[in-house]
Write a structure and sequence with these properties.
Helices cover 51% and strands 9% of the residues. It is mainly alpha-helical. The protein has one domain: Ferritin (Up-down Bundle).
C-alpha cells in the first residue's frame, strides 16, 4: 500500500538529511550576487466552484475509497502548507511563503468537495502542525525537524513533499470516478508539479548538482521538471524567468557541508512574469548565485 511506502520514504529522507552534520563553521563573504529569480504570480484566490465548476458538475455517490482519499488529501495538503510556513519563518526564503499560499488554495479545494458531499472535515481547528491522521502527524514532525537543519535540507523536504503529493494524487485519481473529484485532483496535480519545478530549480541553483528524485522515478521526475509550467483552473501560477538583480550574500548554514562545498549563496530580488490564471500581480522572488567581491 502507498501509505506504507510513505513512511519508508521519510526514513530515507531523514538519513539523507542526517549526512550533512559534520563541518567547520565558515564566514559569509561580502559581495554581490546575480540571483536566479524565482518570482511568483500572486493571484487572488477565487471560489473553487467558479474555477473548477464543481457546483455545475453532477452530484454523484461517493464511494468509500473516494471518501478515504479525500480525507487523506485534505490533511496532506495541510501538511505541505504548514511545513512551508514553518520553513519560511525559519529561513525567510520567499519560495516557502509563496507555495504555502498555493497549498492553502489546495486545502480549500478539497474542503469544497467535503462540503458538497456532507463529509465531516478532519481539520477541526486549523492549527499549524496539528493533524487528525497519526501517520501524517509523525511525518510532519520528522520533516519539520529535517528541514530545520539547514536551508538546503528544507528545500529538499519541499521537493520530496511535492513528489509524494504527485504520487498520491495519481492514486487518488485512479480511485475516483466522480467528475468533480477528478477535476479537483487534476488541478491540484498541476499545482504540485509547478511547485516541484520551483523547488528543484532553486535547489539546483544552490547545489550546482542535478536533482535526485526520492519518491518518483528519475524518469518521472525529469519529465515533470523539464516540462513547461502548467496552468490550472484556480490558484497561483509559478512565475519563472525573473530578471536577475544583485543581492546581498547570506550564509545558508554555519556548516560547510550544508553549503555542499560551494561558495556562499546570495539572495537576489527577482521580478517574475506570472503564468497562472486570474488577475495576478508580479511578485518578488528569491535568487541564488555565487558571491563575488
Amino acid at each position: 500500500m502507498k501509505r506504507v511506502k510513505k513512511v519508508v520514504v521519510w526514513v530515507a529522507l531523514g538519513f539523507m538529511v542526517a549526512t550533512s552534520a559534520m563541518a567547520q563553521p565558515i564566514m559569509a563573504q561580502k559581495g554581490k550576487n546575480a540571483g536566479l529569480a524565482n518570482g511568483f504570480n500572486q493571484q487572488q484566490q477565487q471560489p473553487m466552484a467558479e474555477n473548477c465548476d464543481i457546483a455545475n458538475l453532477p452530484f454523484e455517490d461517493v464511494s468509500e475509497a473516494e471518501q478515504s482519499e479525500l480525507l487523506y488529501m485534505r490533511e496532506e495538503e495541510k501538511l505541505a502548507r504548514d511545513l512551508y510556513l514553518s520553513f519560511y519563518e525559519k529561513w525567510e526564503i520567499k519560495i516557502f511563503e509563496n507555495i504555502a499560499r498555493s497549498e492553502d488554495s489546495h486545502i480549500g479545494a478539497i474542503k469544497g468537495l467535503l462540503e458538497k458531499y456532507g463529509i465531516a472535515d478532519p481539520i477541526v481547528n486549523d492549527e499549524l502542525g496539528v493533524f487528525a491522521n497519526t501517520t501524517l502527524q509523525q511525518i510532519y514532525n520528522d520533516l519539520l525537524n529535517a528541514g530545520n537543519t539547514s536551508l538546503i535540507d528544507a528545500l529538499k523536504v519541499g521537493a520530496a513533499v511535492e513528489e509524494l503529493d504527485i504520487a498520491d494524487l495519481v492514486t487518488a485519481i485512479e480511485a475516483s470516478d466522480n467528475q468533480d473529484i477528478k477535476a479537483v485532483y487534476e488541478n491540484l496535480m498541476k499545482g504540485s508539479k509547478n511547485h516541484l519545478r520551483s523547488y528543484v530549480r532553486l535547489l539546483e541553483a544552490y547545489t550546482q548538482e542535478d536533482y535526485q528524485a526520492i519518491y518518483l522515478t528519475a524518469e518521472e521526475a525529469d519529465a515533470i521538471i523539464n516540462s513547461p509550467i502548467e496552468r490550472g483552473g484556480y490558484g497561483k501560477g509559478v512565475a519563472p524567468n525573473g530578471q536577475n538583480n544583485d543581492g546581498t550574500c547570506t550564509l545558508l548554514s554555519s556548516d560547510a557541508t550544508d553549503n555542499l562545498n560551494l561558495n556562499i549563496a546570495g539572495r537576489g530580488n527577482g521580478r517574475g512574469d506570472g503564468s497562472g490564471t486570474g488577475g495576478g500581480r508580479k511578485g518578488n522572488g528569491d535568487g541564488t548565485g555565487t558571491c563575488r567581491a
